[in-house]
Amino acid sequence: xxxxxxxxxxxxxxxxxxxxxxxxxxxxxxxxxxxxxxxxxxxxxxxxxxxxxxxxxxxxxxxxxxxxxxxxxxxxxxxxxxxxxxxxxxxxxxxxxxxxxxxxxxxxxxxxxxxxxxxxxxxxxxxxxxxxxxxxxxxxxxxxxxxxxxxxxxxxxxxxxxxxxxxxxxxxxxxxxxxxxxxxxxxxxxxxxxxxxxxxxxxxxxxxxxxxxxxx
Length: 216
Prior knowledge:
The protein is mostly beta strands. It is built from four helices and twelve strands, in the order E-E-E-E-E-H-E-E-E-E-E-E-H-E-H-H.
């Protein structure tokens, strides 16, 4: 589990391609302080397992499903990636609940500065749009952000100077692909409202129930 608060930007020092799979070697500093084999690290929002490390870098395997569903296959030597260690139980919860399981990729359509903020319009897969609401949460390349608008199959996000400087999003622009994770809570609510409970009896949770109990 992660929070979407990026700890540092890592650099890809090596990539080993294996058909629709990869082995990534990522140079980092902050995440190396307490790293161990089997630890979970968010790499551009993708939860990956540490398979090896030394004083300056960590290795990760990317399986075919992750290769196909994320933007990791666009990485090359020298690419920058957002890094975050799994959330500590005794730490502050600065972002929102982030699983590191990518729901799809989006494309940056526009990038526009307004005062101290930079607004991005992202074009997303149509099936993801129902999960987003104005002022709701979205994870973009592992960064916890707020949705400021939903229009058709596009959502608007805004980055402050700190986020522009300390995440890979600051260096991205129109045409670039980003990893998207929708708000975990919205996924579960939609799941129960559909009554898809994996062979369990159909849930009695409904829009009327949520309204009567003050949730909507």
